Amino acid sequence: MGNNRALITGVTGQDGAYLVEFLLKKGYEVCGVKRRSSLINTQRIDSFYQDPHVDSRNLILEYGDTTDSTNLIRIIQEFQPTEIYNLAAQSHVRVSFETPEYTANADALGTLRLLEAIRILRLQEKVRFYQASTSELFGLVQESPQKETTPFYPRSPYAVAKLYGYWIVRNYREAYNFFASNGILFNHESPMRGETFVTRKITRAVARIKLEMQDKLYLGNLSAKRDWGYAGDYVSAMWLIMQHHEPDDFVIATGENHSVREFVERAFKEVGIIIEWRGEGLNEQGIDSETGKPLVLVDSRYFRPTEVHELLGDATKAAKLLGWKPQMSFKELVRRMVIADLREAEKERLCQVNGYN
Ligand code: NDP
Ligand code: GDR
C-alpha cells in the first residue's frame, strides 16, 4: 500500500470528505485541491487536518481550481499521484441554469484540463483517473431502471457539462489508452450534504421546526423521485472502480427510489410529527396532523426550467464485477441526517440563548 498517492479535486465537498477518510484509512497519501475562498471552506475535512510543520503528513492541501490548467499541471507534477479522483464541480443542478457558462467551464473543460495535464506530463502509464459522472446524464429517462447502456438525455446545463466529462474520459481511454473510468453515481446524501440540496434542506428544516427555530419549509417539485443512497457507501465504490483490472464505466445506485414528498414524511416522522398533504400543485401543503399547522409549502422559485422527474438505478454490473453493494437503508439514512441536524440546531440554540451568536 505504501506508494499509493491519491489526488482529489473537490476535496472540501461532501464526497471529498468521505473519500479522504476512506483513503487515509487505507494508508494512502492524499493531496486535496481546495479553492481559495474569502472564508475558510475546509470544515468538512478539518478533523483530518495535519500541521504543515510536521514532516510525516499523509494529507496535504493545495490551492487550485479546475478552471486553471497551469495550476493543475503544477500540482500533478509535484505530487505525482497514482490515482486522481475528479470530484470538483459546480454540482447544483438548479444553480447551473443561472451559471451555465461557469458550470461548463468547471465541470466539462475542467475534466479535459486534468486529462490533458496527465498527457502533457506523460503520466498516463502511471496514473488512474476517476470521473464523478452522474445519474443526471439520464435526465429524461429512456428506460427504467437506468444502467450503463441506457441512452443519455441531459436536462440541465450541469448535466450537459457532465455529459462532456463522461465522453472525454471515454475518448482519452480509447485514444490514448488512459486508465480513466466513469462512476455514474445516483444521488447520495449524508449529514455532510450541502444545505441547499433537497434532502439536507429538509432534514435541517425538520430539526429547526421541531426546536421551534423555524416555522415552515418551502420546497419545489414534491413529486420528483430519486434513488437516494449514503455517501459513505458510494466513496467505497469510487475506490473499487479504480482498483478494477481495467478502466470501465459503472452505475452506482441502491435500486430503490422515493419521492421528495416521501422524504419529507419520513424526516418529520423521526421527530414525532405526522405530515398530511392537502391541496394540489402550487397550493399543496404538508400539515402537522396533530396541530393542523401548515409546515411544508410549495414555492415555484425552486422549480427547474427542465426537470428530471424520476431516476432509478440498476447497479448489477458493479455488484458483479466489483462486489459493491449499498449498505445503508433509506430509512436509516434519513434518521442519521435528522439526528445530526437536531444536534446542529441544538448547538445553535444554546449559543443564541447564551448570547454567543
Ligand atoms: P459538493 O458540491 O459537495 O462538492 C463539490 C466540490 O467541488 C467542492 O469541494 C467545491 O469547492 C469544489 N469545486 C467547485 N468548483 C470548483 C472549481 N472550479 N475548481 C475546484 N474545485 C471546485 O459535491 P459532492 O461532494 O456532492 O459531489 C462530488 C462530485 O460528484 C461532483 O462532481 C458532483 O457533480 C458529482 N456527483 C454528486 C452526486 C451526489 O449525489 N452527491 C451524484 C453524482 C455525481 P468549495 O467547497 O470551495 O465549494
Ligand atoms: P439533484 O439534487 O438535482 O438530483 O442533483 P437536489 O437535491 O438538488 O434535487 C433533487 C430533486 O428534488 C427536487 N426539489 C428540490 N431540490 C432542491 N435543491 N431544493 C428544493 O427546494 C427542492 N424541492 C424539490 C428537485 O427539483 C429535484 O427533482 C444532485 C446533485 O448532487 C448533482 O450534483 C448530482 O449529479 C445528482 O444529485 C445525482
Automatic annotation (TrEMBL):
All residue ranges annotated as the NAD(P)-binding domain in the record: 7-337
Keywords: Lyase, NADP
Family annotation (Pfam families): GDP_Man_Dehyd
GO BP, one annotated term: 'de novo' GDP-L-fucose biosynthetic process
Cross-referenced SUPFAM superfamilies: NAD(P)-binding Rossmann-fold domains
Names of the cofactor(s): NADP(+)
The EC number(s) this enzyme carries: 4.2.1.47
GO function terms (MF aspect): GDP-mannose 4,6-dehydratase activity; NADP+ binding
Catalyzed reactions: GDP-alpha-D-mannose = GDP-4-dehydro-alpha-D-rhamnose + H2O
HAMAP family: GDP_Man_dehydratase
Biological role: Catalyzes the conversion of GDP-D-mannose to GDP-4-dehydro-6-deoxy-D-mannose.
Stated family: Belongs to the NAD(P)-dependent epimerase/dehydratase family. GDP-mannose 4,6-dehydratase subfamily.
Protein name, per record: GDP-mannose 4,6-dehydratase
